[in-house]
Amino acid sequence: MDSEQLREYGHKMVDFIADYYKSIEKFPVLSQVQPYYLKDLLPDAAPDQPEKFQDVLDDITKKIIPGVTHWQSPNFFGYYPGNSSIAGFLGEMICSGLNVIGFSWITSPASTELEVIVLDWLAKLLNLPDQFLSSGHGGGVIQGTASEAILVVLLAARDKILGRIGRNSLDKLVVYSSDQVHAAFKKACQIAGIYTENFRVLKTDASSGYGIDPKKFDQAIHDDMEAGLIPFFLCSTVGTTSSASVDPLVEIGQITEENDMWFHVDAAYAGSACICPEYRHYLDGVEYADSFCMNAHKWLLTNFDCSALWVKDSSALVNSLSTNPEFLKNKMSEQKKVVDFKDWQIPLGRRFRSLKLWMVLRLYGAENLREYIRNHIKLANLFEQLVRSDSRFEIVCPTLFSLVCFRFLPSNDDNDGYELNSMLLDAVNSTGQLFFTHTIISDKYILRFAVGAALTEERHVRESWKVIQNQATIISRQHIL
Ligand code: PLP
């Protein structure tokens, strides 16, 4: 590694990225390339001799950028946001520069210790119960994704109960969630060996705001116990992926407590909003939870990846996930003086991700982060008003946080608007002027407009709405609706 070369190339790369952000609005938000476009543009083997840095940069401009969907565009309204910020970016730089693999405390004490401290900071901003802080039996850990967070706590809960009732009772273990839970939960159950027939999906509807109905949950537990099964895990959501709906944590939390079940709260997207006192009530009931997760990489200005998971009792994770081969043994770990985060996650190796979260929290400060969230929620409310002012559209469910769910109304019966709305979505996205996505709720095709990109301003929301309206008009004319 030649430091002077790093300095030279590093400056050029920072310039390149700064220019990218400056000109980001000129790119189509959704990449317009066709599958395998890149195969024709690049050689089919790695070069034998080093190439020039400038040639690589030129290829990024000409060959890579066209195949990029611009998540950081102010006109990106798809899925949920994946935030980037200068602070997060700089944190990533220092993480890459140091490039430590901090699986055990000794492999970089600062990596473990900063993570413990920063997750305590964030827990305090979210006003999580003290049991989630590192001062007790629990604490926070950064996972790559909310999916990994669900998996590790499911494994911990599974092994905890099997330790009590015997490992051959796996076929009796039952898990619960609503039909709005993220697909990550099903995947985690598959990996954890939960029997498919023991996966209870509680149906939700508009009457419960697409949250879990506690009565249905209680009844399902009762029925399973009658059948000789063992309810042991609930995956609840604050801010579901389809509609941002919120499960009633207090009621369902009480039920899990009565039945001695592990209660996980997945607030991957909406958790960030709960740093604002006026939205913190969505987490009321988190005191019943055994584990809680939110993705700072979604809506808290921290570059991917940074999924924050807190548990009340870390020993459940460690008992399930710890391995201790000879080559990793060291005095600090043996004396149980330190946290070794390798035992709180699936992989061994781990990046120094707390640096970027620490930099975000320090370089913004909590008040600016709260204002950032509030502004997006304000913009989502503006978008909702715009939709409501056009009688060709309807708002499908209450706008929660910064997600607006709406649909173009069919004036004749075309499969209840399925084709019409999917046509509109494709037409809008292929303009490249904005990108948004869809879902199905109560068997209806719904358009989702998720505000949350760091660069989005009011003008982007207004202009995007105009594009949607124009495309709706074109489709209406073409199909003589
Ligand atoms: N949970 C919820 C509620 C989500 O909205 C998402 C993604 O949007 C996930 C989990 C999965 O997130 P990740 O990509 O971090 O696994």
Automatic annotation (TrEMBL):
Molecular function per GO: carboxy-lyase activity; pyridoxal phosphate binding
Keywords in alphabetical order: Decarboxylase, Lyase, Pyridoxal phosphate
InterPro entries the UniProt entry points to: Aromatic_deC, PyrdxlP-dep_de-COase, PyrdxlP-dep_Trfase, PyrdxlP-dep_Trfase_major, PyrdxlP-dep_Trfase_small, Pyridoxal-P_BS
Cofactors (names): pyridoxal 5'-phosphate
Residue ranges of the TM segments: none
Assigned GO CC terms: cytoplasm
Residue runs in coiled coils: none
Modified residues (N6-(pyridoxal phosphate)lysine): 298
GO biological process terms, semicolon-separated: amino acid metabolic process; carboxylic acid metabolic process; phenol-containing compound biosynthetic process; primary amino compound biosynthetic process
Family per record: Belongs to the group II decarboxylase family.
PANTHER family to which the protein is assigned, alphabetical: GROUP II PYRIDOXAL-5-PHOSPHATE DECARBOXYLASE, MIP05841P
Protein name: Putative Aromatic aldehyde synthase (Or alternatively Tyrosine decarboxylase)
Organism expressing this protein natively: Zostera marina (Eelgrass)
